[in-house]
Amino acid sequence: MPRLFYLYFQNLFHPMLSIDNTLISEDITSKKFLCDLNACKGACCVAGDSGAPLEKKEIAVLKKAYSNVKPYMTKEGIESVEKYGVSVIDSDGDDTTTLVDNKQCAFVCFENEIAKCSIEKAWKEKKTDFQKPISCHLYPIRITSKKKYDIITYERWKVCKPACACGDKMDLPIYKFVKPALIRKYGDAWFKKLEIAANYLKTKSTKKKKSK
Fold it and tell me: What are residue 96's phi and psi, to 5 degrees?
């Protein structure tokens, strides 16, 4: 049966689950989340001081996909990419998508004043095989890769308060909200192990509450 242990990470102690070569914050199974675009207007794509984190292999893929994504982008986004490239290195030394005027992601497009992803729009219309950066697909999960394992945590951001409220209302845990992205990253077998662990912890928590 899965057991929680505590990992000191980013100046905090996190209760974690261990599955294969990953350490998963217990928050992923217990906290609720469901994007409410009508409320947040896609703020995660336009707020902050860095673009979306990119894996090294994604940079080449994005370069290849750019010509097919370009028709869905804003004029400003195109200008930024053609000036700086599809990716830049941010102040932390990480590869990220390029920004427009150090604000919104260059790959943002707008529909009814809601920020959306031009890469994903092109993917939905079968113009590219690249859905979008895995970091975007996984959000609000963040992954910190070490040599032998990944640390999977929940990133709290005030712009996502509507998503937390919506998730609570629909009783949707984070891991279920990002199920397709987790399977894309780690595979079906890994996700089934996470699901078993999450159900076990939920049952254990329920029994503990009833015994009080």
Answer: -140, 165
Domain span holding position 158: 18-33+147-211
Looking at the fold, whether 62 and 27 belong to one and the same domain comes out as no
Burial of 106 (0-12, 13-18, 19+ CB in 10 A): buried
Joined tokens for residue 39 = 């409320």
Domain contains 1: no
Residue 13 lies in a domain: no
Q: pLDDT tens digits, residue range 45-86? A: 998 888 999 999 999 999 999 999 999 999 999 999 999 999
**Partners of 144 in the beta sheet?**
151
Residue type, 129: D
Asked if 126 and 102 sit in the same domain, the reply is yes
Contacts 24+ apart (CB under 8 A), 85-89: 86/59, 86/62, 87/51, 87/54, 87/59, 87/62, 88/51
